[in-house]
Amino acid sequence: MKDDSHYRKIGFKCGLEIHQRLATDRKLFCECLSDINASDKSIGHVTRKQRAVAGELGSIDRSAEFEEGKDRTFKYHIFRDRTCLVDIDEEPPHGINMQAFMVALSLSQAMGMKPVDEAQPMRKEVVDGSDPSAFQRSVLVALNGQIKVGSASVGVPSLFIEEESSGIEREEGNLISYNTDRLGIPLIEIDTDPTIPTAKAAKEIALYIGTLIRVSGMAQRGIGSIRQDVNVSISGGARVEIKGLQEIDTMDRFIDNEIDRQENLIRIRDTLVKRKASVGRPKNVTRAFANTKSKVLRSSLDADGRVMAIPLHGFKGLLGTEVNPNRRLGSEISDYAKTAGVHGIIHSDEDIASYSITKEELAHMRKELSITEHDSFIIVGGKEGQAEKAASRSAWRASQAMVGIPVETRGVNNVELCTTRFLRPLPGGSRMYPETDAHPIPIHSMLMEQAAGSAPSIEKEREFLGAKLTNKAYAEQLLTSPRLQLFKAVTTKTNVEPNFAASVILQKLTELGRQGVNVSSIREDRILEMFREYDMERITKQAIDEILKSLGREDEPVDSIIKKHSLSRMHRHEISALVAQAEKEGKADANAIRKELMSKYRLRIDGEELNSILASKVS
Amino acid sequence: MSFNFKGTQSEGELMPSTEANAFDIVVIKLDNGYNIGVDFYASRLRLIAKRKGKIAFPKAKIKQAETLPKVSVVYTGGTIGSRVDYKTGGVSTLQSPEELFYTVPELAGIARIEPQQLFNISSEDMTSAEWQKIAESVASKLNHGSRGVVITHGTDTMHFTAAALSFMLEGLNAPVVITGSQRSPDRGSSDAFMNLICSAHAAARSDVAEVSICMHSSSSDDRCALMRGTKTRKMHTSRRDAFKPINDSPIALIAQSGAIEYTGNSYRRVVREERRKIVPRAKFERRVALVKPYPGASPEIMEFYIGKGYRGMIIEGTGLGHTPVSTRDKEDSWLPAIKRAVSSGMVVGMTSQTLHGRVHPSVYKNLRLLSNAGVIYCEDMLPETAYVKLGWLLGNHTRDKAAEMLPKNLVGEIKGRSEYNDFGV
User: Fold this and answer.
1) Same structural domain for residues A281 and A382?
2) Residues B231 and B328 in one domain
3) Which of B79, B152, B157, B230 is catalytic?
4) Which residues, at least 6 apart from A503, have a Cβ–Cβ distance to it below 8 Å?
5) Average pLDDT estimate for A397-414
6) Is residue A391 in some structural domain?
């Protein structure tokens, strides 16, 4: 952990973009169901081509990217209840989902934002195929807010409501398959100013915004339903966007690692400049490896591929220098090579012998590159076309090491180590133009009153929970729990004691999750059903474990699980009969009877009820 | 522009408002590319600098081989030939081949493209006057050495134009391909690109000497269907495979790669050695109506047309070709009006609102009553095609000749055999 003054010293700049899927009934611009349900299977697909009508494709060999873009085929899987013609670009959008729009407007009010007078649906160009229409619909709802979290105060310049993209299913060569059930689910995006002072503050602000959205009661739950992008830069470094962080807990570590990475890369740069380093042109060195036994290179050559190499002067020792835990400058270069479709690179700071490359082959290659043993090199093998592209991208990245830090979009590389890797160049501003098929949304005073009235408030929620729960730790935990709405449903729709409900929702589910129960797949309405059964005295406390375990295995109505596994709670008269029977068999001792009955019917007999029956017998 | 946004001084670019915006709203584009609508009176707009509103479309210069066949591309309007100004969302028309090649570079490898903008009319706004102009333009292109012609067209009434050209371009000996798009070309997913490429292939390389429609054959971007102009209809409001052959199958399926797969459906072939100039027969009688009876439809509808002196009417009847005839209330029967129409000299043709299948003049008594009254049963012809055909016949022939030719096949609009596979809904 770095102390606060350190961030100031290095010119730390950090801003967040929080994306949260909303739990509305319907999608943003059509009437499709808006949840994700694994039992809705794909009923067919369409295949499409897209072409780059937009220009901003990033800075590395744009023309090549363009060529690639033309070749790709996209396959869109269609789901019965969750894909309609609007999703697959065969019907104009319907009117905007006002339920979702109101959530956005309410949230804007909770952050003191100023809504626009008439919201304008826009099309934001998307080039990766994740949207069949090649654009994402997005609406700027409000501007110029401010939030205060702990001692940090940060501006919230904009809040958007937009369409979620399709989920990628698989990528095989030039064929990329997407699932369109996710496409078009309302997504809230909240941006902050790049003035967050520390990594810890970033984490707190992300948590605050996430909690605020959840408190609205309209946040979708589950994997990927919230994603946070973090923008980080330091003086002398570059703006880097870390995309798609799903866990808030480790956000500060990702940020601190990015600072380290930039600082280390600056140090490497300084050394390279001092050494007057240079990067030569990539060269085809296939001949040097014609008879190689190296598995990596052999597989490329056997596929009629080739081996390329890049001569590097003044890089010795630096390719192997760590910039982040288990990440070296070599890994950074390798990321660029991989975008061309190869598996990676081999560089001279590695143990070359471990690749089964012989001294003779190396000598031959050095000769081809006109370099000595004091120089460094990068080798990359791949199919024709791929290898050249990988080499030219590697050479570009290596030469950037002498200049500084490339502006990049990075993704998670290792969750445990909190490291990232290059995904693509940071796009220039996306091309935006009006979505003329969807009507602008006037924000008149009536909507504003409604929004102000329903603006979520963490403070109010805290008070509400505090009043309901005697266990204050539960109250705090629930506030940031994705299951908050479930708790509220259970305690408003049943008479179950709130502290007990909280203990099941917070502790029991976590505990079962650790035991391997697939807790995240359990639908919340099933859990609510279970609490209803408990409330009606149809199951005992002890049966709850068993029911949750069953629900984790299969999505079935709770009453049929109760029947199937014989979990229904025994009536008082049944228990009395069992007690009488035991007495008849000569057991007079209440403890012995209790022990016997509980060992036999632990899940079906309520202990307290049994005690009261036994007590009445004794008296 | 600078403006006051609820207390914060802000800057942005003023955008043109559209009919969708409220009257007191001005639309401003912010730095991040988003447009916002702000209250005109409260925002106190102030001009900082003027910028050019129009942007020049990028062009691609491509040298084309002289050996490629010459194909004319005639723009008539619709979304397909348009480009969007990304800033404003405004639409304008592509004009030079260089602009077209930038958008669809593949075209340069298929044919020597000669684009011409004839007019820029949405297809729902077209009349027979536009059909005549297109026919004349196409004839002139073909008479001046084009191997084939591609016509870009709005999709709504594309099948009317296709039918009209089929009749007007008598003695056609070259492919004339009409295409359009259901998704505008400003989106990377537009069907326009593939439709144009496949149409260019059809015009440059196929031997189909007919007027055809070339559009997506399915919702996927795999192949286009080349369909007979007189037997094709727009069957969906928005899907890219909206056009379907009715009582017919496609002539060919064309892939973007240029692979043309003929389906076995018969078609008129290009005769290489024949070099005859085409003189379009393009007159059209506009006093022809297309009328659709329905339960309770009043025969006064017919009376209206009789009174206006209409010379022809195509009825889009129910089922095998009915109008209300033996109604319980005599006032509701169309039979007397039809008799009056025929005796006034009007040519009355019968088609079916089922679209699929053939009408028949004698299966039921009511049908016999109608045909005895002089209604001409138009076989398996589409109502729209029959309407166009009758207007063309009455424009170029006598009333009796028109009545005689209406139920007879001229250019593929009527098929003698109803094939099992033609009902592939």
Assistant:
1) yes
2) no
3) B79
4) A471, A474
5) 93
6) yes
Tell me the nearest-neighbour CA distance from A158 into chain B, angstroms.
10
**DSSP code, position A505:** I
Active site residue B155: yes
The beta-carbon neighbor of B238 closest among A49, A85, A160 is A85
Residues A275 and A314 sit within 8 Å (Cβ to Cβ): yes
Chain B residues touching A160 at Cβ < 8 A: 34
Mutating which of A30, A109, A117 best tests the B interface, going by the most B Cβ atoms within 10 A? A117
Q: What is the dihedral of CA A241, A244, A247, A252, to 10 degrees?
A: 0
Which residue is closest to B41 within chain A, CA to CA? Answer: A117
Q: For position B116, what pLDDT does the model report?
A: 86
Closest CA to B402 of B359, B349, B323: B349
Contact yes or no for A138 and B88 at CB 8 A: no
Domain co-membership, B30 together with B93: no
ipTM surpassing 0.95? no
Write out pLDDT tens, residues A232-276: 999 999 999 999 888 888 999 999 999 999 999 999 999 999 999
Same domain, A65 and A156: yes
For residue B132, give the CATH number of its domain. 3.40.50.1170
Q: Distance (Å) from the C-alpha of residue A155 to the closest C-alpha of chain B? A: 13
pLDDT digits (tens, 9 = 90+) for A102-140: 999 999 999 999 999 999 999 988 878 899 998 999 999
The answer to whether residue B222 is catalytic is: no
My answer on whether B141 and B201 are in the same domain is yes
Q: Which residue, A427, A229, A406, is CA-closest to A323?
A: A406
Considering only CB atoms, A116 lies closest to which of B36, B185, B218, namely B36
Residue in B21, B239, B256 closest to A118 by CB: B21
Shortest alpha-carbon distance between residue B99 and chain A (Å): 13
Same domain, yes or no: A392 and A329? yes
B298 domain residue, yes or no: yes
Q: State the helix-helix crossing angle for A590-601 and A607-618, rounded to 10 degrees.
A: 150
Catalytic residue (one of B156, B186, B241, B332): B156
Give domain status of residue B256, yes or no. Answer: yes
Q: Which domain holds residue B320?
A: 288-405
Closest of A344, A329, A196 to residue A262, by C-alpha: A329
Which of B76, B103, B152, B155 is the catalytic position? Answer: B155
Chain B partners within 8 Å of A65 (Cβ): none
B156 has catalytic annotation: yes
Domain that holds residue A205: 12-239
CB–CB of B36 and A118 under 8 A?
yes
Residue B413 lies in a domain: no
Same domain? B85 vs B202 = yes
Residues A97 and A212 in one domain: yes
End-to-end CA distance of chain B: 55
The distance of B15 to chain A (nearest Cα, Å) reads: 10
Contact between A440 and B37 using a beta-carbon 8 Å cutoff? yes
First to last CA, chain A: 65
Domain final residue, candidates B208, B227, B262: B262
Is B213 in the same domain as B100?
yes
Nearest-angstrom CA–CA distance, B407 and B388? 13
Residues of chain A contacting residue B90, judged by C-beta atoms under 8 Å apart: none
Q: What is the CATH number of the domain that holds B321?
A: 3.40.50.40
pLDDT tens-digit series, residues A484-507: 999 999 999 999 999 999 999 999
For A328, the enclosing helix (H) or strand (E) is strand A327-328
Residue A416 lies in a domain: no
Number of domains in chain A: 4
**What are phi and psi for residue A583, nearest 5 degrees?**
-65, -40
Residue of B nearest to A75 (CA): B220
What residues have CB less than 8 Å from B302, skipping those under 6 apart? B291, B313, B334, B337, B338, B340, B341
Residue of B nearest to A430 (CA): B33
In a domain, A445, yes or no: no
The pLDDT assigned to B85 comes to: 63
Q: Is B6 noted as a catalytic residue in this protein?
A: no
